[in-house]
Amino acid sequence: MHTIHSLAASDIEALNASLPADLIERFRNKFDPARVAANTYHDPNDVMLFVHLPKTAGMSVGRSLQEAFDKFHGVNWRNIPGSFRIMTHRACYRHSARPGRQVIMGHFGYNEIRIWRDAELPIKAAAILRDPVARLISNFNYNSSDAHPAKADFIKSFPTLESYANDQPPDFQLYTMVGPTFSFEQALEKLIRDYTFLGLTEKLPASLAHLSASHGLTSLAEHHINTASAESKTAKTPDKIITLIRSKNRNDMRLHQLLQTLF
After folding, report:
1. Residue 141: what are its φ and ψ, rounded to 5°?
2. What is the pLDDT of residues 184-219, one digit of tens each?
3. Cα torsion angle, 181, 208, 220, 128, sign
4. Which of 6, 22, 24, 96 has the greatest number of beta carbons closer than 10 A?
5. What is the pLDDT of residues 31-68, one digit of tens each?
6. How far apart, in Å, are the Cα atoms of 156 and each of 6, 35, 38, 159, 167?
């Protein structure tokens, strides 16, 4: 029996292989580029909620979305709840006044998506994920670099990668997208219910092509903005820290592995 601290790629594959067949079938029908027909999710007057998970090529994707949608609403990361409500209000007002496709993008998550559910608004959420180890290391490197406006405060709080990894909540990506769940199966159910697109940073061109085709958008060009790779630094990271990160991202690893089988 595997423990959470010894999970490797083969362990994740075995766990996913034990998922209910009907659940996997519905997941693939919803998100597999090979199964989703062109224009399946096309709506000439929709609003997409694009969850920007940190260090998942969000800035690059954001540029693509600005070109593809009639109106792009960016959520201010300094005040996510307040800014999201303002952008929601603006998007709804515009929707009531004239046709057009809109997208709201930012570092928001399930708490904000629930605003749409509570208001009985149609939810069409999307996100791009990344390998949990590479994503966390990349986020630490960015936050502790001169590019981050709060670098000094960040380094004071987290002087080392290990201290940062220890402080991070479990399954950051999945929790952000669907909130608390009792099981991985429940998380998949919520993704199937609320999301129309899931992509991978590691498969960005294929992900953008699928988003474009499935949602009937103009061709989404791949932009290279703030795309420094963390792979070399990941390779130099001590095994104990990689094990720590994996131990706190069991379900993120499972979702990442499932998506890898689709692209």
Report:
1. -60, -40
2. 999 999 999 999 999 999 999 999 999 999 999 987
3. positive
4. 24
5. 999 999 999 999 999 999 999 999 999 889 999 999 99
6. 31, 48, 49, 6, 14
3-state secondary structure 157-204: HCCCHHHHHHHCCCCHHHHHHHCCCCCHHHHHHHHHHHEEEEEEHHHH
CA-to-CA dists, residue 10 to 2, 6, 14, 76, angstroms: 11, 11, 6, 39
Largest CA distance in the chain: 58
Distance CA 123, CA 35 (A): 21
Query: Which of 4, 250, 261, 245 is closest to 134 using CA atoms?
Result: 245
Lookup: tokens for 27? 């997941």
Distances (CA, A) of 90 to 52, 73, 103, 154: 19, 8, 11, 33
